[in-house]
Amino acid sequence: MVLRIVRLGTPRAADEGLRIGTVRRPPRGVPKTEFASQNWYDVWYPNLAPSVETMKMAQHATTPAEWQAFVKHFRHEMAAPDASRSLDVLAALSHQTNFSVGCYCEDESHCHRSILRELLREKGAKLE
Known about the structure:
Elements: E1 3-7, E2 18-21, E3 43-44, H1 52-60, H2 64-78, H3 81-93, E4 99-103, H4 112-122
Helix pairs in contact: 1-2
């Protein structure tokens, strides 16, 4: 069993399982009925996406210091009880079933999913 961190909209891996979209907004111009068939996600879970304010910090980060400010804000948001419990659940599920979580960003190193990867690893998730 394994948890994958993926870019939404990319082809699915063999045995990837359920794909969870940890994004603030659904993909533009894609009918809701086609989210899964077009490899976006099976379940939309914006609870693990950065707030709009924090997302803007990431989008405008051009220096390492600005990126670290985003990381600090996003980690603070993910430490809130609801988000922290969600991460606990995903970490536990990673030992029982295959699934993935993801975002649209092309470059994971400059995306909240890189922080989700770290947070899930810290929670004991079984990551690919």
